[in-house]
Write a structure and sequence with these properties.
By secondary structure, the protein is of the alpha+beta class. The protein is built from eleven helices and ten strands. Helix content is about 50%, strand content about 15%. Helix 7 runs antiparallel to helix 8, helix 9 packs antiparallel against helix 10 and helix 9 packs antiparallel against helix 11. The chain binds coenzyme a persulfide.
Length: about 400
């Protein structure tokens, strides 16, 4: 069982400790049968469908939606989401991905949806019957999300949507997409079912750590007014507020990868014979392990500071989430790189966990706001606070 002593930090309540232990036990028992099965990393669609079903059966997806619609906490509990992501990521990147996308894909609905639309989608997200996706990015509107051109025009009693979205996780396997498009009142969030006429996945995108990813086309797609999330024109703020929650959890996933790399590298260093001693006796190796341990703890402090602030202080955490995501993902990359180095040739061999982690971590520094976007967000907030005479917490 993984070391979970960080849960003694004052950010957590008793139920968080119980949750961490239960997810870890469940993951150790249930995930190998899916993610280590022959072909699991080639046929990622089938693997992710199986993972969503298993995560649903395990009850973990209930943390992705509010209590009133099949969930556990009425306000999404960011510490629980982060603990689950960190723990799953330690076991399997694909399991973490499948969990996270249910939360992100349903996030705007959970936070801003009216009762009817929540009823229609969220209980099925919580059981794993419906797979969700978050469709914000476009070819020329990634970091600059406000530059999106996908349009949504009034049409009779509903809307007609035209345009393309790309880099959409779960593109190709999702049952519905939370789409952000430009309507006459401004960017609007709307649910589009995958079987809507005019919707298609025009490209599957293959990346270094494979997962379902695609480019979507909306060609005269008609959606009813009842599928709007919140107010027409309030979609951009809904997207950014959703990202405030999920960026913290991306940091948590990076933390899970980094902890696994540190654990594996330490186990290797204390057993690998070298120069008449073990690798862990060499000062250079000790220096690497010390830096890795420091980065892991510093990342954990930022991730759980952000989650705790959102859950307990209930304030906007744009700055804290950006710091958590930026630091945890960038440092996890460094930690994993050091782990690969400590493994030597084995570190780049297929089938060795640190090789997989080395590929898994890279995209986390890009998606849900690249590291550079997080720096923009932090700097803006910092300068705003400076000019208004506020001190940062
Ligand atoms: N919660 C609620 N509202 C928010 C918010 C948040 N976290 N962040 C910003 N807003 C509000 C702002 O207050 C502003 O409102 P007003 O117009 O009423 O003042 C509005 O939203 C627009 O904010 P801003 O002016 O900061 O928008 P920008 O277009 O300058 O956004 C960044 C800049 C770079 C921060 C934004 O585009 C971004 O996060 N980009 C990355 C997107 C991303 O993560 N893409 C990956 C997709 S998921 S794989």
């Amino acid at each position: 069982m993984a070391d979970q002593s960080f849960l003694d930090w004052p950010f957590f309540e008793a139920h968080h400790k119980t949750l961490a232990r239960a997810v870890d036990d469940w993951a150790a028992a249930m995930l190998p049968g899916i993610v280590d099965a022959p072909g699991a990393h080639e046929d990622v669609d089938a693997t992710c469908r199986a993972l969503v079903a298993e995560l649903g059966d395990g009850g973990w997806l209930t943390y992705c939606v509010p209590a009133s619609h099949g969930g556990v906490h009425e306000d999404l509990d960011v510490r629980s989401l982060a603990i689950i992501r960190e723990t799953l990521a330690r076991h399997s990147g694909l399991a973490d991905f499948s969990f996270a996308m249910q939360g992100l894909g349903a996030g705007a609905l959970s936070l801003f949806g009216g009762d009817d639309i929540k009823k229609k989608y969220l209980p099925a997200v919580a059981t794993g019957e419906k797979i969700a996706a978050f469709a914000l990015s476009e070819e020329d509107a990634g970091s600059d999300a406000a530059a999106m051109t996908t349009s949504m025009q009034h049409d009779g009693g509903g809307y007609v949507i035209n345009g393309e979205k790309t880099w959409i996780s779960n593109g190709g396997i999702a049952d519905f997409y939370t789409l952000f498009a430009r309507s006459p009142a401004g960017v609007t969030a709307v649910v589009v079912d995958a079987d809507t006429p005019g919707f298609s996945v025009v490209e599957r995108i293959h990346v270094i750590a494979p997962h379902p990813l695609g480019r979507l086309r909306f060609d005269q797609c008609r959606v009813p007014v009842s599928h709007i999330i919140g107010e027409e024109g309030a979609g951009f703020k809904a997207a950014l507020a959703t990202l405030d929650i999920f960026r913290t959890t991306v940091g948590a996933a990076a933390l899970g990868f980094a902890r696994r790399a540190l654990d594996d590298a330490t186990a290797r260093a204390v057993t690998r014979k070298m120069f008449g001693a073990t690798l862990s006796d060499l000062p250079l190796a000790q220096g690497a392990l010390a830096e890795m341990a420091l980065d892991v703890d510093a990342a954990a402090l930022l991730v759980y500071r952000s989650a705790w602030t959102k859950d307990v202080q209930k304030t906007r955490v744009t700055r804290e989430a950006a710091m958590a995501k930026l630091f945890a993902t960038d440092q996890a990359q460094q930690v994993i790189d050091k782990a690969v180095q400590l493994f030597g040739g084995l570190g780049v061999k297929k089938g060795v966990k640190v090789e997989e982690l080395y590929r898994e971590i890279r995209a986390l520094r890009i998606y849900e706001g690249a590291s550079e976007v997080q720096k923009i967000v932090i700097a803006r907030q910092h300068l705003q606070n400076f000019s208004s005479g506020k001190t940062n917490p």
